[in-house]
Design brief:
This protein is α/β, with parallel strands linked by helices and 293 residues long. The chain is 42% helix and 27% strand. The structure holds S-adenosylmethionine. Residues 9, 12, 43-46, 48, 68-70, 73, 112-113, 131-133, 136-137, 192 line the site of S-adenosylmethionine.
């Protein structure tokens, strides 16, 4: 699997494992029906959430659909989930249409969410998941359609919603201006011909959920906090995760700030990863609730 985004999402799994708000996870556990469920995850990427929910014994069985616009990620997902299953002593069942992980059947749907909502008439889900995704779409326009994908009072679990704070440590004199411009880029972003998210998605999502008749039952922060271990190395593949974050920041800033200053800042931050000095924090919020009845 040589696709860089695949490696980025795989490296992100341990960061998300730590970040996801455990109080919200407990409420999800309480609310989930005690039977096989139908789950739809949008912007699902590599499918690391399926693995996590099985590891955390939140799912027993049922159907789990991974929806993503990126075909390569969905292709890599089958492979990554098979490797994950083997590493846990499970034998995955591989069919042309689905992948079996114990009693769970995983389906793969390649679609852009806006197009999917305009065309889809599939069976409604018991649980809708969006992890690190709703900050990439125009939420007020998307939310009513998302709730139509759920059974009445079906559960939503919207997690890792970015909320306006990107912190790199140690402090640097360019940080404040660079992060201001980086966040402005998120506010002005367009993808697939539509507005694509904003830098304060987390706090605004709360109001959008209430306005849509689906106020949260539980919420909590799910900040990414990434630093080296006492031996100076980053956990798992998290040095790669940090490299990827820096590359995203660089792409957001190039052409919008002084080029020489950006080169200086990037080279310092990259050297701080190598020396195990870089601390990275991103503020994010998780919400759990029920769709309108
Ligand atoms: C930040 S990644 C998160 C992936 C996964 N949820 C995770 O946390 O590992 C966002 C994902 O959303 C997908 N995506 C972005 N915009 C999309 C859209 N408009 N429709 C469907 N998928 C989209 C991307 O291809 C990517 O896999």
């Amino acid at each position: 699997m040589s696709y860089p985004y695949t490696r980025y999402l795989a490296s992100k799994k341990s960061v998300d494992d730590r970040a996801l708000h455990q109080g919200v996870v407990q409420e999800l556990r309480r609310q989930l029906p005690d039977r096989p469920v139908r789950v739809l995850e949008i912007g699902a990427g590599l499918g690391t959430m399926v693995a996590r929910l099985l590891e955390w014994e939140l799912l027993r069985g049922g159907h789990y659909t991974l929806l993503d616009v990126d075909r390569q990620l969905l292709l890599d997902s089958r492979h990554w989930l098979c490797q994950w299953a083997h590493s846990r002593g499970l034998t995955p069942e591989i069919t042309p249409d689905w992948l079996g992980l114990g009693d769970l059947r995983v389906y793969f749907v390649e679609a852009e969410i806006g197009d999917y909502l305009e065309n889809e008439v599939g069976q409604p889900a018991d649980l809708l998941i969006a992890n690190a995704f709703l900050d990439l779409v125009e939420v007020p326009a998307t939310l009513p359609g998302l709730f139509r994908l759920l059974v009445p009072e079906g559960l939503y679990w919207f997690t890792i919603n970015f909320d306006g704070e990107t912190i790199f440590q140690p402090d640097h004199p360019y940080d404040q201006e660079f992060m201001r411009v980086y966040h402005l880029g998120m506010d002005e972003r367009e993808r697939y011909g539509r507005p694509a998210g904003e830098s304060r998605a987390g706090r605004h999502l709360y109001h959008h959920l209430r306005a849509a008749g689906a106020p949260p039952l539980a919420s909590g922060s799910s900040d990414w906090v990434v630093h080296a271990q006492p031996n100076g190395s980053y956990q798992g593949d998290e040095a790669y995760f940090l490299e990827s974050i820096l590359t995203t920041v660089e792409e957001g800033l190039r052409g919008h700030v002084d080029g020489a200053q950006l080169d200086e800042w990037m080279s310092l931050r990259r050297s701080q990863i190598k020396s195990g000095q870089l601390l990275y924090i991103a503020h994010q919020i998780d919400f759990l609730g029920k769709a309108p009845s």
